[in-house]
Amino acid sequence: AQSVTQLGSHVSVSEGALVLLRCNYSSSVPPYLFWYVQYPNQGLQLLLKYTTGATLVKGINGFEAEFKKSETSFHLTKPSAHMSDAAEYFCAVSRAGGTSYGKLTFGQGTILTVHP
Amino acid sequence: DAMVIQNPRYQVTQFGKPVTLSCSQTLNHNVMYWYQQKSSQAPKLLFHYYDKDFNNEADTPDNFQSRRPNTSFCFLDIRSPGLGDAAMYLCATSRDRMGYSNQPQHFGDGTRLSIL
Question: What is the tens place of the pLDDT at every residue in A86-105?
Fold first, then answer.
């Protein structure tokens, strides 16, 4: 079975400050990892994904995440927050192999607030 | 632009009155998913189609049904909506083949269902 834990249901930063959203996963097989962003009353938009290869992954809107197998983590960062980054962020894992058909297991989400 | 389109964006129905939500895609993806998302929660997978192969989650209520008449369209039917079914319903698609789940899911903007 696989699971995702996002540490902190709410994160608040000032505009221009570092954004760090934490995600830890549990998976019995090599995971595929994703970060999605959701703005109010909209669907989920893919920010970035890790499948294989380079462990530092760059995504849209200046976000990046690093896969650390030893720490079972996939934290999302952005050097400088912008007001438009205020949204809810979901970390998700899917399982490689078997008959999972790419089913995602989501974390509970982290709401990011950006103060002027 | 290729996309996932959900109609309507907002749906109001009466307690116990059947309702159908629709999803269409121009991505030509072989997998389509339906999620239920309640306020401040992660999306919860209800079921998915791998091509025409229907896959129900074990805890999806019998009240929820789905149809996929062709690759482009998928419908969510709620036979007798209860107050607890008020939620955002998200449709997603992905291009997957069995055992390889590294492709991201593409989400529509959702249908927000209210029950009177």
Answer: 999 999 998 655 555 567 88
Q: Rounded to whole angstroms, how far apart are CA atoms A17 and A14?
A: 5
Residues of chain B whose beta carbon is less than 8 angstroms from a beta carbon of chain A are 4, 6, 31, 40-43, 45, 48, 50, 55, 88, 90, 92, 94, 96, 98-110, 112
Beta carbons within 8 Å of B8's beta carbon, 6+ residues apart:
B21, B111
**Residues sharing a CB contact under 8 Å with residue A109, sequence separation 6 or more, in sequence order:** A6, A9, A38, A88, A89, A90, B40, B41, B42
Report CA-CA distances (Å) from A86 to A47, A74, A112, B31, B93.
14, 20, 5, 30, 25
pLDDT tens, position by position, A66-85? 999 999 999 999 999 999 99
Decide if pLDDT at B92 tops 70. yes
CA quadruple A18, A3, B92, A32: dihedral positive or negative? positive
